[in-house]
Amino acid sequence: MPSRRRIIAAAALLPTSVARAQPAPEFAGLDGWLNSPVPLSIAGLRGKVVLVDFWTYSCINCRRTFRYLNRWQAEYGAAGLQVIGIHTPEFGFERQRHNVESAVREFGLRYPVGQDNRFETWRAWNNRAWPAFYLLDRDGRIVLLREGEGHAREMEAAIRGLLGLPPRTTPAPAGDDPDLSRIASPEIYFGAQHPTPQARAQSPRPGAATYGFGPAAALRLNQYELDGTWLREAEALSLQSPRGGLRLRFSAAKLHLVAGATREVPIRVSIDGGAPVASSIGRPTLYTLLDGEAYGEHRLEFTAEQPGLSLFSVTFG
Fold first, then answer.
1. Is 61 found in the same domain as 142?
2. Which of 37, 149, 164, 288 has the smallest CB count inside 10 Å?
3. Can you spell out the DSSP letters for 253-274?
4. pLDDT tens-digit series, residues 227-250
C-alpha cells in the first residue's frame, strides 16, 4: 500500500485534469458494499451515466460535496444517473466498517458505497485525491475527471448533457461551489509519517515527550504547540498525561479537527482568548471546533481533561 505522503491528500489544491473517452477500469478488491444488496461492477452499469466519487469520511473536502451528490442521485436517478461512492481510507480507523456505516447514515448518502480498504480500486483507477470525481458515459468510458471541490456546476452540466437533458435554467443552489480562496492555512497533520509544524522550541519528535505551552504571542501562524505528555506515532498524537492541551494559530473562518478517543474525553475550547466552551471527543471522526464567518488570523486553545485522546489532523474552511 502506498504511503500517505505519496497519496495526495490536499485535494482542494490539486490541478484540474480531464480524461477523454477512456474505458473505466473495473472496481477491484473491494471489502464489501453499503447501500447495495449485491456487488456492483462497471460492466453491470453499462447503459447508465455513472459518477464515481473517491472519498473518505473524515475529509472536510469530501463532506462538503455530499449535498449535491445526494441531490443529483434523487433528481437524475430516474433519467439514468447512478452515483457510486468508493470509500478509500486515509486513517486506520476509517477501515472499520461500522465507522463507515455510521458516516453513511450521518450524511444521508442514498447511493451505493464500496469499501476500498486495500486501495486496490484506488490504484486500478490511478486515483490520487480525496475527493475525485469520474464521470462515465453510458458505454462505461470516462469523459470527465475532476479533483477536489469547485466543480459542481460543471459536473452537473456534463451529467445533464449525457442524460440528454437541456441545460439548467435555474441557478444552482448556493454553496455547491464554496469560495475557499480566503483560507490561508494548509491542512496540518500530527503523526510522524507527515512533516508537522509544531513549534521548534518544543523540539518535536517521535515517541513520548512532555511539553509545556510557551508565551501565546510567540506562536507563529500555521504552527501549534502542546501541553502535557503526548505519544507521537505514525498517524496520530495521543495524550498520555491526565491533562493536556493544544494551542494553534491559523488563518480561516472554520476549524475542523480529526480526532478520536478510547472513551469520551471532555475538552474545553477557547478561541482568541475567549471564555472556554465545553465539548467532548469520542468516536474517531471530524469535529468542528470553530464554525465562524470571520476570515482572518485566530488562535485556538483547548485542554483535555483525561488521557486517551488522539489527534490526527486539522483542516480549515
1. yes
2. 37
3. SEEEEEEEESS-EEEEEEETT-
4. 999 999 999 999 999 999 999 999
Distance CA 262, CA 120 (A): 30
Q: Do 192 and 155 fall within a single domain? A: no
For the CA atoms of 300, 11, 196, 261, what is the dihedral angle to 10 degrees? 60
pLDDT at 11 over 60: no
Residue 209 belongs to some domain of the structure: yes
Question: Based on the domain organization, do 37 and 112 belong to the same domain?
Answer: yes
Contact 175, 67 (CB under 8 A): yes
- 15 with 158, same domain: the answer is yes
Rounded CA separation 120/81 (Å): 25
Same domain flag for 20 and 158: yes
| Residue (of 75, 85, 148) closest to 116 by Cα position | 85
Q: Is residue 85 part of a domain?
A: yes
Q: Is residue 2 part of a domain?
A: no
Kindly give, in sequence order, each residue whose CB lies less than 8 Å from that of residue 256, ignoring residues fewer than 6 positions away: 60, 286, 287, 288, 289, 314, 315, 316, 317
Q: 210 with 261, same domain?
A: yes
Residue 57 belongs to a domain = yes
Cα of 190 vs its chain's centroid, Å: 15
Which pLDDT score, from 0 to 100, does residue 172 have?
79
pLDDT tens for 257-314 read 999 999 999 999 999 999 999 999 999 999 999 999 999 999 999 999 999 999 999 9
Domain of 259, in residue numbers? 188-316
Grid coordinates given for 123: 490504484
pTM: predicted TM-score of the whole model, two decimal places: 0.91
The DSSP letter of residue 42 is T
DSSP output for 6-18? TS---GGGSPP--
- From first CA to last CA, the distance across the chain in angstroms is 30
Split into its structural domains, the chain has a count of 2
Q: What is the helix (H) or strand (E) element at residue 67, kind and residue range?
A: helix 66-76
CA dist 156 and 2 (Å) reads 32
Closest CA to 177 of 146, 202, 206, 200: 146
